[in-house]
Write a structure and sequence with these properties.
By secondary structure, the chain is α/β, with parallel strands linked by helices. It is about 30% helix and about 25% strand. Strand 17, helix 10 and strand 18 form a beta-alpha-beta unit.
Length: about 475
């Protein structure tokens, strides 16, 4: 019989993150029972959370910005690849001004914490962290996306973006470590679980399986993606959670080989193979090219012999996450890039030769003429739109569907105009101002369709859609 041995399922290596100090206010050390304890005031958790949400809503990691610049510099990239990368860099520069966020969908706030056994709080950590989420979303120009179920079929926006997803784990030591994420609906909807068997665990069979599933991701979640794949898992939900953390690069320091102890590890060879596979798909950053993904993470986990879960997740172009920690030395938050302009090239779209083939579309023309002209071009064609658009998203479509179900006619404005599938965040200080980033993104399938008993598009002509995608209490930290 093997001897007892313990290993973390996801043993992480040394943290090489660059942090900035937020001060030491509200953090003290105390001696008791011959040990040193770290005593954290509740306000520290609140203010750290608020600052983290503010940062990740406006700033990106330098590594992500460098990957966008790499697309622009790659002469093998398609014009659409370079157009998307340059647009995203320009958008990052605007967001860094901290007025409007980098994406109109400012996400579900997700906080994962690991609290050392020598860390003292009042035990209401989730409440204090939630208050920080509340402060960030109500004080900044961030959209409220959380819907509270009043009944099975009736919902109401909470108006605060609460509740947040908060998970606190026990850990060793006298530090409190965090991962903060803001997960938008687009990328969250591209999380998938497949219940497979050992039959998938062959080199060629696995690649064939992954190619099929990766193709199905499409462009609706704003590529280029940070793609994560998890093979195995002690449960289906653990595989999915691991994929989410891997897409945020939180698991980059995992071992790169397995062992009989059963811990997870990264398969670097398979990561490279899958990355090359995504480049050959031809999907690219937006309908044609090689940059469907910036990078790939593949994590192998132990599994029950009768199941083999495979989880896939992405982090989109709004790659919003940051690490943080509270230690005896103070409070620290990951240093994100405050000057993304340094990643911009000296040339713009015209100089890059990427403006050729852009088709101007006058939206003031009759809809029949617009549809006829659009039908002449392949999906990957870039358009320059001018004229009126109807701005509407899921809730608007649901209300229109209700009216149609009640026998009311399709509103004329939906027949006469293209629908801009968006729900932007706005600058609450300036009424009438256009909202956050509204960039290119492939049209997905969120509009109600016949599978739900008949949807908006099934009650009239198939008209164009333009899909959005890109856009004083006591203080302890000082």
């Amino acid at each position: 019989m093997p001897e007892f041995g313990y290993t973390d399922l996801l043993p992480l290596g040394e943290d090489a993150t660059t942090y900035r100090s937020l001060g030491r206010g509200g953090v003290t050390t105390r001696q008791s029972f011959g040990r040193e304890f770290l005593d954290i005031d509740p306000g520290v958790l609140t203010q750290l959370t608020a600052r983290a949400i503010a940062d990740i809503s406006h700033l990106l990691r330098p590594t992500h910005l460098a990957q966008l610049r790499r697309v622009i510099d790659d002469r093998q990239a398609s014009p659409n690849d370079r157009f998307v990368a340059l647009d995203l860099l320009r958008n990052a520069c605007i967001a860094a001004g901290r007025v409007l966020p980098m994406c109109q969908d400012t996400g579900t706030a997700i906080v994962m914490g690991k609290r050392g056994q020598h860390v003292l709080t009042d035990g209401r950590d989730a409440e204090h962290i939630s208050r920080g989420v509340y402060d960030a979303y109500t004080e900044l120009n961030l959209r409220y996306s959380q819907l509270a179920p009043l009944t099975m079929f009736t919902e109401r926006n909470t108006g605060t973006n609460l509740p947040a997803q908060i998970e606190i784990y026990a850990d060793s030591g006298n530090a409190y470590k965090f991962l903060f994420m803001a997960k938008g609906g687009g990328s969250a909807n591209k999380s998938f679980l497949y219940q497979e068997t050992k039959a998938v665990l062959g080199p060629q069979r696995l690649l064939t399986f992954l190619e099929e599933k990766i193709r199905s991701l499409g462009t609706a979640a704003c590529p280029p993606y940070h793609l994560a794949i998890v093979i195995g898992g002690t449960s289906a939900e653990y595989a999915l959670k691991t994929a989410k953390y891997a897409s945020a690069h939180y698991l980059d320091t995992l071992p790169v080989t397995g062992s009989a102890a059963g811990h997870g590890f990264r398969d670097l060879e398979l990561e490279q193979q899958v990355l090359e596979l995504t480049g050959r798909l031809g999907i690219g950053a937006q309908f044609g090219g090689k940059y469907f993904c910036h990078d790939v993470r593949v994590v192998r986990l132990p599994r029950h012999g009768a199941s083999c879960p495979v989880a896939i997740a992405v982090s989109c172009s709004a790659d919003r996450q940051a690490l943080a920690k509270i230690t005896p030395d103070g409070v620290f938050l990951e240093q994100l890039e405050t000057d993304p302009a340094r990643y911009l090239p000296d040339t713009m779209h015209d100089d890059l030769g990427d403006s050729a083939g852009v088709v101007p579309i006058d939206l003031n023309r009759p809809m029949g003429e617009i549809c006829a002209e659009l039908s002449r071009y392949p999906v990957k064609t870039r358009l320059a739109l001018s004229g009126p658009l109807v701005v509407a998203r899921d809730i608007a479509h649901a209300k229109i569907a209700e009216r149609l179900d009640a026998g009311e006619p399709m509103p004329a404005y939906l027949r006469d105009h293209a629908v801009y599938y968006a729900g932007p965040a706005i600058d609450r200080r300036r009424r009438g101002q256009a909202g956050a980033r509204l960039h290119h993104r492939g049209v997905g399938s969120r509009i109600p369709r016949a599978r739900h008993g008949g949807g908006v598009e099934d009650r009239g002509p198939r008209l164009p859609r333009v899909r959005r995608g890109r856009r004083q209490r006591q203080r302890f930290l000082r």
